[in-house]
Here is the input.
Amino acid sequence: MTDDQLQAAYTSATGRPAGAVTRLPGGAGNRIYWRVCALDTPHSAIVMELPADPVKSEEASKDHVHPELPFLNVHRYLTRIGVRVPLILLDAAKDGFLVIEDLADRTLEKALHEGQDREKLYSQAIDALARLRAHAEKAPDPSCLAWTRAFDYDLYHWEFEHFIEYGLFGRGAKPTDAELQVLRREFARISLELAAAPRSFTHRDYQSRNIMVTDAGEQVVIDFQDALQGPRQYDLMALLRDSYVELDRPLIDRMLRRYLEILPQEGGPSLPPEEFIGFFDLLTVQRKLKDAGRFVFIDQVKKNPSFLAHIPSSLRYVRDALKRRPELREVQEILIKHVPELRG
Here is the structure.
């Protein structure tokens, strides 16, 4: 979009004359974000410029073509159940853009770097997640796209293969055929176990870069358009095993137990902690191996090397989780040979 088009979009959405236009730093996705400021006031808004195929998920999925923009569809559901998401100021999806509320630039990650209270920030995010999950399990909504797609065996297994392709071969590793056979056998078994867990609404990337923190301390959830059905631990794992902000295990354990306390208070089930946390660790192995491979893919295929710096933290989480799952010793021994970050 040109500056003139962006300014016209802002004026249509707000009724204010538009001034400066700034392109915001992008992530791994295909959307482009612009901040447009008012000409004569401190007000601003964000123009989300949509990709050529805006209804297709940017993550691996088995989506069918859907006539509605996923961002709008999932936004409507989250708004209905009281989750704080950015306000939509203008829906011009048919013209290739949306105008949404400007939440400034403080993500949860940045708030932590500023020295805000870590325990308080994560407690707030955990409580909101427990409320969301409890509501979703009590009242499924088939009109929301998240109920039409799921983390099933095929998706978990594809993500493991993605790691083999990019996290191993893409980084120069040369596992033997026998080692690959063991890895694929174990990855298939893990995929079956993960896919058998109860599923409901899952953000998919509920982590420090997708939670905005306002000046008033309010947390606002973004980047939810790829939501799907997944196990209870998935969003917890994305938040507490975040590749961008490493957390120590005592804090992770406190937050897991907080979630298990809040979930039944919000109308969800009471769950046995040991089994719940064990599954959390198993899921960590799958997701963080996938992340490590994905970051290589983003570098080699999308030509964006900025995520390579987060491979070590992803793999340190894998190392910790593997130690807690003794049945994965063969996997651990093979990966240690070919993934330097898993040693030590």
About this structure: The domain at 3-101 is CATH 3.30.200 (Phosphorylase Kinase; domain 1).
